[in-house]
Structures are given as C-alpha cells and as structure tokens.
C-alpha cells in the first residue's frame, strides 16, 4: 500500500489528510489519472507530486511503501 | 565604530555574512513585485538589512482588509486609500533613510518589468497570481537573476529559490497555470503563514545578496502552520532541458507579446472582459464550491458561473474568460479576477 | 459588512477561526515580556489580528543596532532613545487603534509580573535571557496560562508551546539555566530567524486565542535557516511529575524571593555587581573563545575573565558572579550581563 | 554506529555538523558524559538530547542506528 499525503484544499476535497491506495507499479502520471477518476480530488492539473520527499516526473514508477505527497501551488501573496 | 557599522553590527557578527557580506548587501538592488502581505514583509526585512536599493511595484491601494496581515501599513493609509507602493516607501524611508526606494504604482506587465531588470540583483515574489509569477520566472532566466518564489493561503504556504542555470525554474515545476480557486479572498489567510514564507525568502535573499551561494536552499519548502506540517522536498529531478523558460533553447513564453492576460473595457457596457494568458478549462464545479463556502452568492449553468463579490458581479466562462460588470477600471477588474481564481 | 468585520475578513474566512474565533480573539489579553526582535514581531501580529489588549514590558530603549531586526521601530525612535515599550505602543496604536496597549518600562521581575497575571490569557516570550523565561514558566503554571517559549541567535532558533497540565514545562525540558555564551551580541542574529520563531509563536497564539486547542503543536521546533535544517521533536516524554514548576507539588522556584538575579551598586566604586539566580559554574574557556571570536578584548586568569564591550569593562567569576565597571545603572548592568552570557 | 547531529555553537565547537560514534547500549546520560570527556564539545549542561526526533530522559538506552540530536537552548530574542 501507499500513503498519499494531501495538503491545502485537497484535504478538504477528500475530507481527510491522507489516502491509502495501492499505487506500486503505476507511474506518477497513471496515479494522477487514477486519482482524478476514482477519488473526490477532482482536477489535478498543476498539482505537484513528490515521492519520498522528492518531486518526480510523470514517468517515475512508484514502488511499494513509497510515500506520496500532493502539493497544490497556491496563488496568494 | 561608525554609525553604519553599529547599525548593522548584529548582522555583521553573524559569521557567514561578516563585514564583507554586509558590504556586498549594501551594493545590491532588489526588485519586489507585489507589495501585499509577502511584499511588505520582505521589503521591511531588506530595508532593515541595508540593501542599496529597493524597487517596489504594486497596482493596488491600501484597503482596510489588508491591515490584518500587511505590515508597513496603518489605519491612516487605509482611510486615505494610499497606493501600496507609495505607502510602503514612506514607512521604509523612516526605517532606513539610506536605502533608495523606488515606488511604481502600476501593472507589473512584461513591458514594465523588462525595462527595470538592467541592474537588478534579485527578484522577490510578492504577487497574488501565477500569471505574474511565470512572467517573473521568464525574466529571471533571461537576465540570469535569482528569483525567490513564495506564496500562501490559509495557514499553508511554500517557498522555492530559483537560480538560473542551477535549479529547475517555476515552469519546470508547474507545467501549467494552476487554477484551484483558493485565494486569500475565498479561504482567508493568517499572518503567521505570511511570516513563515518571508522568513524563508528573507534568509535566501541574505545568502544571495551577501555572496553565500553555497548556503542557498536546494529544496522546495511547503508547510501548514495550523496542521503542524513542514516538508522540504528535493526538486532537482524536475529540471527540464526542454523547458521553454530555462532549457537549452529558451523562448521565454511569458515575455512574448500576446501571451499576457488581456483586459478590455467592453464598449458602452460598464463591463471589463478579462482573458487569461493561457486559455485553459476552468474547474467550474470546484470554483462554485469554493465560492459558496466563502459565503459568496453564486449562480450559473454548465457553461458559465456568476458570482457577486463586494457588490460586483462577475461571470466566468469555462475557457477562463470572465466579464466583470459594473466597472470600467481595468485594474479593478484584474484585482477581482485574481481574488476569485488566483 | 461593518467596518470591523471587513477589517478581519481574511482571518474570519479562514475556516478554523471563522466569525466565532474572531470574537474570541477580540476578548483576549496577551502579555508580551520583552519588546525586542521577537516581541516587536509578535505584538504587531497580534495587534493586527485584533486582540482586546496587549501588555508590553521592556526595560530598554531603542538603539541604532536594534533597527536591523526589530520591527515597529524607526530611526527617529533610535535617535531619541525612546523606551522600547512606549515606541512600540505608539506604532501599534496607528496600526490598530481599537487594541488597548499597556506599555510598561521596567524590569520584568517576579513582583511586577505576578501582579499583572490576573486577566492574562496568554504569555508570549520576547525576552533575551533564561532567567526571565524560567520566571514566565513558573507564572504560566501558577496561573494556568499558556506560555509560548521562543528564542533565536544567528540563523538558529526554537519555539515550544507550553500548556499547563498538558505539556512538559520549560523546567522539565531544560533542568538548569543554560549558559553557552552565544547571544545576539556575540554571534549576531539575522532577521529571518526572528520571523521564523514568531511565525510559530503567532500561529500558536491564534490557535489558543480562537479556542482551537486541538490544533496546538505538540512538538518542539528547532531550525537553522542558513543550514536549511528544520526539526520537529516530540517532547511529551520529558514531562516530569516531580518537576518543581509543573509537577504534583509545585513550588514555583523562580517566584520565591531570593531566587532572582541580584544586582547591587557597589558602594563608591562606580561598579555594579550581578549575581545570577542560580550559582553555577561558568564555562570560562568557552566564553573566552566566543568573545574573542566576536572581536571583544578578553583577559583573565583561571579564576576570572575580564572583557571589554562597548567601552565597558566586565569581570566574570567562575561561580557566575560579575562586576560591571564604569556604571551605577543597574538596568544597564543587567543588559551587559545578558548580552555577554545570555 | 550512531549519528549525532549538532546544532548552533556545537557545530562550531566540533568543526562539523555531525559526529559518528558507537553509542548503542549507553544511556543518554552516559553518552553526555562520554561526549564531554572525549570530544571538543565541552560542557553539555543544559543541552537537550533527542533520540530519533524525540526528547528523552537521561536513563533512556540508545540502540544501534538511533539518530541523536543535541539541541542547545539559545537565549536571544
């Protein structure tokens, strides 16, 4: 299983601060598509994805127990 | 000890800066785009630190609702609706009369910013929208000037130091203009989140200005002060040699004409049309739920939504275009647009 | 929307605060001890956030070397040597005229602080020495008032929220008055380290004042902005039921008479003797190396060391006692003592 | 082996940001005595000691690979 940590409005969208899912073997891009379709997170365009505290590209393959973080860039200032 | 040495003595006692670093800081010119919450904090910090020159740009005036988090401003500034850049300048001069402060009251567009870059040593992010950030990002790459990205909303915020030729740029990190509908006007903001971003921007500024490039942070910081979370994320892997802003054949897309947000007064209609730089698909449903939850009056249909904010009605179309009714003021229209979708 | 609602609108839009939380904040009285770097930042933040009352205590006046990091103060305040608490009050009133600000220019000793605690809702640390911190810690426990510990030096700092009956107290965490000789006067301080501490103190203050006790941070934060380090350390295991400040049979040692630093003018000698609350063994060698590295003139022998700072000669004995020569001013002597050993 | 992370002036005293030592089996109090005697860190009175991101008392027994952090409370403000 993989833990997906959520931040800012994603927490509200999901109603919790983390999601558990089986993502091992998926690429980051595939995970993004999966989350958009199967969870209440909605459109993840522009959301940055980190695996084990490191931002990675969409073709990165996720492994068992990797911890994933979804960081929404916010615009305020 | 002369009076300037005494003034900066605690900063010079800090070993990595020292008297040499202080001399370097005293030669530098910093351009701060946006003098709201972030910009007031970083400009005060850099004026107190003793930079040579600060250029401040903001199109807005001080409003009562700014006082909760925007340093430098007083009740009097809000009552008199003083332009933010000018109100900030006045206060900064009383804090450090030796720092040259140039205040520009206007829209930070490509033409204006490009003309200012010549002797700028550092770009600091104080803006409230990604359009201006992508523009700053392109300028940083074109002129090889470090750019301190920062943003916040609610109790959440982030900071990243962009060094041309070394780190990924904003375009490498965020491929498209993000539109999530969370802005300070829809979900609020607490002042400590602002300070947390500016503490990071400020430390990075002192490193860069004093010549301590080795100490510059390589990670992307993201935090939530209410949730007691702090992440420091490695970002190097996102550096993209094909990036149009920082890659091998840069085109600086946000400096191209035609790539800016288009704002036009609609003839005889007391309405301004706003068209974002990048036509994308606005997540209408998410926006409706954000706005409802912020207590705004929202209506619409599958093709458009209307929302009333501070007595002004705005209509948003799926492609990102918006009509701001009841005004002919283009800056006012931009402000309302960014306050609703970021 | 009335004018006060508008003023705090961005803070009320933040869901965990909301209109109810804002009403709570508007009822609260916060006591800030020390109006230097930390105290000016937190007092500005809380005045802007709309607390009912702030009480500020500081014995010192504004000095040119404060301007590099102490918000609220201007060059004029330094030229006129305005007392810090009064200078801060004047600026805070122009920022938020509805907040009642009480400025006390004096030594924050047990007698003074104990007399102020009756309707205080929160104690905020802005002091530069552990003697006053241990005193605040005892008061927090005696009156069951939360205490926001914070401190910084160089680019390093820390923050911890002490909730009586819930978390360990400062005495549980740090058994003895720590003396390391690193102070802002010996190794310097950069302003972003201050903002990093006050961002944490400020967020905790808003949680506590708005009634969001569940959101209060349970970890001890320690960071170094220059080294890009951030630690969030669990502290619950240090809660000590035998602690004399917060344990089962509290004695509040720092509220006992005879437990304070003793300061006395030596008859006819133009010298003040300072004796710390706890006689300990001063690490003379470490102090000598710290002071030398700060560029101070240091002499001595195995039993005592002498040091000259800003034209004043001070002699330190191994047991922590010191003679400050060339002055009869007890506050001046305290200030020099704390600036050299913390 | 155990990594001992140093902060603030302890970094300067040691001339590096971390020390490697064999501390498994020692209590935190014993480690403190050892470091005072055998390293340039000097007097560690008042220094707070965390093991694996948690402050512990002097009788806590250190295990192999535990990461230790020495946090000096500083006085500035």
TrEMBL record, chains A, D:
GO terms for molecular function: nucleotide binding. Keywords: Nucleotide-binding. GO terms for cellular component: molybdopterin adenylyltransferase complex. The lineage of its organism: Bacteria, Bacillati, Bacillota, Bacilli, Bacillales. It comes from Siminovitchia fortis. Gene3D superfamilies: 3.10.20.30. GO terms for biological process: Mo-molybdopterin cofactor biosynthetic process. The keyword Ribosomal protein does not apply. Pfam families: ThiS. Belongs to the MoaD family. This is Molybdopterin synthase sulfur carrier subunit. The keyword tRNA processing does not apply.
Automatic annotation (TrEMBL), chains B, C:
The keyword Transmembrane helix applies. Pfam families: ThiF. The chain crosses the membrane at residues 145-166. Keywords: Membrane, Transmembrane, Transmembrane helix. Coiled coil: none annotated. One of its GO terms (cellular component) is cytosol. Belongs to the HesA/MoeB/ThiF family. This is Thiamine biosynthesis protein MoeB. It comes from Siminovitchia fortis.
């Amino acid at each position: 299983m993989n833990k997906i940590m959520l931040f800012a409005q994603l927490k509200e969208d999901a109603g919790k601060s983390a999601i558990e899912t089986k993502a091992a073997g998926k690429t980051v891009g595939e995970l993004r598509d999966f989350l958009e379709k199967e969870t209440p997170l909605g459109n993840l365009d522009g959301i940055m994805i980190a695996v084990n505290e490191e931002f990675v590209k969409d073709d990165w393959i996720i492994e068992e127990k990797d911890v994933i973080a979804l960081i929404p860039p916010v615009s305020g200032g | 000890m002369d009076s300037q040495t005494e003034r900066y003595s605690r900063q010079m006692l800090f070993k990595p800066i020292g008297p040499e670093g202080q001399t370097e800081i005293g030669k530098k010119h910093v351009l701060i785009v946006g003098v709201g919450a972030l910009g007031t904090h970083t400009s005060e910090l850099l004026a107190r630190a003793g930079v040579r020159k600060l250029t401040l740009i903001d199109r807005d005036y001080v409003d009562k609702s700014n006082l909760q988090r925007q340093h430098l401003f007083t009740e009097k500034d809000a009552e008199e609706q003083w332009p933010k850049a000018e109100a900030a300048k006045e206060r900064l001069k009383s804090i450090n009369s030796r720092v040259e402060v140039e205040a520009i009251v206007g829209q930070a567009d490509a033409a204006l910013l490009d003309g200012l870059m010549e002797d700028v040593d550092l770009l600091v992010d104080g803006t409230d929208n990604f359009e201006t950030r992508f523009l700053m990002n392109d300028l940083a790459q074109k002129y090889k000037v470090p750019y301190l990205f920062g943003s916040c909303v609610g109790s959440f915020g982030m900071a990243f130091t962009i060094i041309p030729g070394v780190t990924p740029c904003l375009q490498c990190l965020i491929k498209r203009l993000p539109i999530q509908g969370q802005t300070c006007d829809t979900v609020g903001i607490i002042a400590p989140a602002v300070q947390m971003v500016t503490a990071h921007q400020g430390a990075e500024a002192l490193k860069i200005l004093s010549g301590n490039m080795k100490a510059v942070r390589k990670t992307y910081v993201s935090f939530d002060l209410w949730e007691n979370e702090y992440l420091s994320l490695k970002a190097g892997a996102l550096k993209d040699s094909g990036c149009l802003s920082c890659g091998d054949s840069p085109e600086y897309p946000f400096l191209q004409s035609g790539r800016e947000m288009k704002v036009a007064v609609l003839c005889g209609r007391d309405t301004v049309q706003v068209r974002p730089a990048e036509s994308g698909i606005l997540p209408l449903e998410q926006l409706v739920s954000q706005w409802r939850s912020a207590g705004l009056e929202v209506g619409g249909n599958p093709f458009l939504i209307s929302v009333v904010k501070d007595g002004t009605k705005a209509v948003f179309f799926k492609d990102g275009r918006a009509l701001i009714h009841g005004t002919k003021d283009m800056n006012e229209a931009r402000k309302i647009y960014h306050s609703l979708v970021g």
